Amino acid sequence: MIELTEMEQRFLKRVHKVTHFPWKNKVKAVDASGKAMRLSRATFERLRDDGILIRSSSDITSNTYKPINAPVTPEVGEVLSDA
């Protein structure tokens, strides 16, 4: 079962998209208004591996991820429905 920390729950409520630059191994997250958000690579990898962030597009230098629309677990569904 996926257990989200309080910080991850707040992050998922605001995040609009996450961009991963594999060549630089950097992660950039923004909310709907374009304001930058903090996200560590470890948290990004955990959310991606758990299926909460899914890849929506990619190009030669970056991959773009968005939060899922359908909840993986009831806890994740509750967080995403509040957003």
Describe the structure.
The chain is of the alpha+beta class and 83 residues long. The chain has one domain (6-82). The chain is 33% helix and 31% strand. The protein is built from three helices and five strands, in the order H-E-E-E-H-E-E-H. It has helices spanning 6-14, 41-49, 74-82; strands at residues 15-21, 26-31, 36-37, 53-58, 63-67. Helix 1 crosses helix 3. It is globular and about 35 Å long.
Characteristics:
5-stranded antiparallel sheet; 33% helix; alpha+beta; 83 residues; 5 strands
Uncertain segments are none
Q: Strand order of the main beta sheet, please? A: 3-2-1-5-4
Share in helix: 25-40%
Strand content: 25-35%
Structural class: alpha+beta
Short description:
The protein is of the alpha+beta class and 83 residues long. Helices cover 33% and strands 31% of the residues. It has one domain (6-82).
List the helices and strands and how they pair.
Blueprint: H1 6-14, E1 15-21, E2 26-31, E3 36-37, H2 41-49, E4 53-58, E5 63-67, H3 74-82
Antiparallel strand pairs: 1-2, 1-5, 2-3, 4-5
Helix pairs in contact: 1-3
